[in-house]
Specification:
single chain; 194 residues; alpha+beta; Pnp Oxidase, Chain A; seven-stranded antiparallel beta sheet; three-stranded antiparallel beta sheet; binds flavin mononucleotide
């Protein structure tokens, strides 16, 4: 077992440790729309649920290397709406490729041939064929960390889901360290344990 004192260690190592120990991370494949109406699609794994009543979740968006806002962050700040698409294995490669730096006026969905369909209550569309999509409105915006990260707390206002998702989540993709991903391969059911 190794031990690292954060205040005495290089940032590169700290980042590596967080990326490889907080795993697997769920992936939010987020659709947003710019003020000019361009649909943006990008993945984020610094993402999780916070509460269920009301249903709140957060996503943490860093800055680009030049310090500018990523399109997702800019669009959420401009329009206050986003959709979290849940990623299954079938979408893995497209999801990964959508994390590349596309110019703001280019829609990753169009470039990567990802089919979209309208949402119910918010303007950003959802990805057609995903196991679930959560329509969100911005509830809080925090700036945390050195860059700083833009942390968006969204309130889920509508959920689209395949009913079988309530039984098993196999096939849903999570992120490991680096460019590695995982799916649920083994389920351990403790429902008989009292
Ligand atoms: C699986 C995966 C997870 C990612 N998670 C994050 C994240 O949590 N925060 C972040 O700022 N960038 C994350 N990225 C990088 C963004 O997706 C990438 O910067 C993307 O270009 C942002 O696109 P946008 O400018 O269209 O918003 C992730 C990339 C991948 C492939």
């Amino acid at each position: 077992m190794e031990t690292v004192i954060v205040s005495e260690s290089p940032q590169q190592l700290i980042s590596k440790l967080i990326f490889n120990t907080v795993v697997p991370r769920p992936i939010a494949w987020i659709t947003t729309v710019s003020e000019r109406g361009v649909v943006n699609l990008a993945p984020f794994s610094f993402f999780n649920a916070i509460t269920t009543k009301p249903p709140l979740l957060f996503v943490s968006v860093g800055k680009r290397k030049d310090g500018s806002l990523k399109d997702t962050a800019r669009n959420i700040l401009e329009t206050k709406e986003f959709v979290v698409n849940v990623v299954s294995k079938k979408f893995l490669e497209k999801m990964h490729l959508s994390g590349k730096d596309f110019p703001p006026d280019v829609s990753e969905a169009e470039e990567l041939n990802v089919e979209l369909e309208p949402s119910e209550l918010v303007k950003p569309p959802r990805v057609k064929g995903v196991p679930a999509a959560l329509e969100c409105v911005l509830k809080e915006h925090l700036r945390l960390g050195a860059t700083p990260m833009d942390v968006f707390v969204g309130e889920v206002v509508a959920v689209h889901y395949r009913p079988e998702l309530l039984q098993t989540q196999s096939g849903i993709v999570g992120r490991l360290g680096g460019k590695r991903y995982c799916c649920v391969r083994e389920e351990i059911d403790l429902s008989d344990l009292t």
